[in-house]
Amino acid sequence: MPLELLQAGEGMCKASHDRYKSRHALVQNATAGAAGPRAPMLQMGVPVLTTDCPSRDVPQRGGSAVLPARAVCATATSSRCGDRGGMRYCIAYSRSPVRPYRKLARSYHPDVNKEPGAEQKFKDISNAYEVLSDDEKRAIYDKYGEAGLKGSGMGTGDYSNPFDLFESLFEGFGGMGGMGGGRAARNRPMQGDDESYNLVLNFKDAVFGVEKEIEITRLEGCNTCDGSGAKPGTKPTTCKTCGGQGQVVSSTRTPLGIFQQVSTCNTCGGTGEFSTPCKTCGGDGRVRKTKRISLKVPAGVDSGSRLRVRSEGNAGQRGGPPGDLYVFIDVLSDSVLKRDGTNILYTCKVSYIDAILGTTVKVPTVDGVVDLKIPSGTQPGTTLVMSKKGVPLLGKSNARGDQLVRVQVEIPKRLSSDERKLIEELANLNKAEPANSRR
Questions:
Q1: Domain of life, per the record (predicted)?
Q2: CA–CA distances in Å: residue 141 to residues 6, 46, 253
Q3: In this structure, is residue 277 part of a structural domain?
Q4: pTM of the full predicted structure?
């Protein structure tokens, strides 16, 4: 049976819903409060199925409309079933819900229907279509209802954008008045793709920032055809393969029926028009060229940082804007200094005598060599902080991290006879002194 949108007027909807509660499909109730003695509703506002909705538009048999096995009733007003002005919409389908979806979506699309609640109805209809058009979801819903969908991870709250769904189904069918058609959508300007570039920096350039000149390869507008892709002096003609629709429909006969699939026309690439291609760009309207650009790298970048250069990506098509250039940073390591976020790490080796008596050592930093005082009695593994000698905070060059200096005390493995004699004397002196005096 062909897909149809049926309307049952005042006093004509006498559904015996209780007999058909085991057969239900997902179409949200069009308005809240649409319930009555003859229109019991399931949970979550999902209407119960009926095959008893008479209509002037379908054959009658024993006072009931001859409908397929599944038919969904959803009230379109808050009136009760059978009240004056009450109207019920029935989506009757045999193999696919595409046609009734297109009719209902066209009626309730917010760009066409300005009534309060129209947008919510449009979303409800789109939610229903997503389940009805998916064999797995539809089977789960027919057997277990909405709770089954949620239990399987296919809940009704996780649908794709209903407006994207609407646009994809109306593409290739002439579109809607005032909303643009499929071919018009495919002929609209398209933004170019983004490009990427890997930049390797040395340690100090990453810390303080640097200005680099890089060479990139990208798609730019063809000068021969001014980006149109057509041979100069020629005019586009309607594609003979798709008849100007930009899409072709292929049919496949299966044991379950005939399935139709819509795909982009390979001849015209979905534009609906055919042109003699430009010899320079091959019809793309763009050619690949090399360009040198100056790039300012901010202070504080690190490996994994990403810089975005607007409008330096590939050129758009049909007058669309260019994409962006993304520069990915890779920083070379330093042989002496290590980096930990905005802090710089350094290990300083001192003799056991200097650790005991204290000393001043020269420490390399990103700002140059700086004197660092080692206090007397410094223990092995002590960390000394050199304030504001670290990496500038990315985006805030006046704020810097610290340089952390870890003191490593070196103990000699071999001693001269004089050194050993002095240390033994020191050890004896240490034993002779009271313990309290050494504290």
A1: Eukaryota
A2: 23, 11, 26
A3: no
A4: 0.55
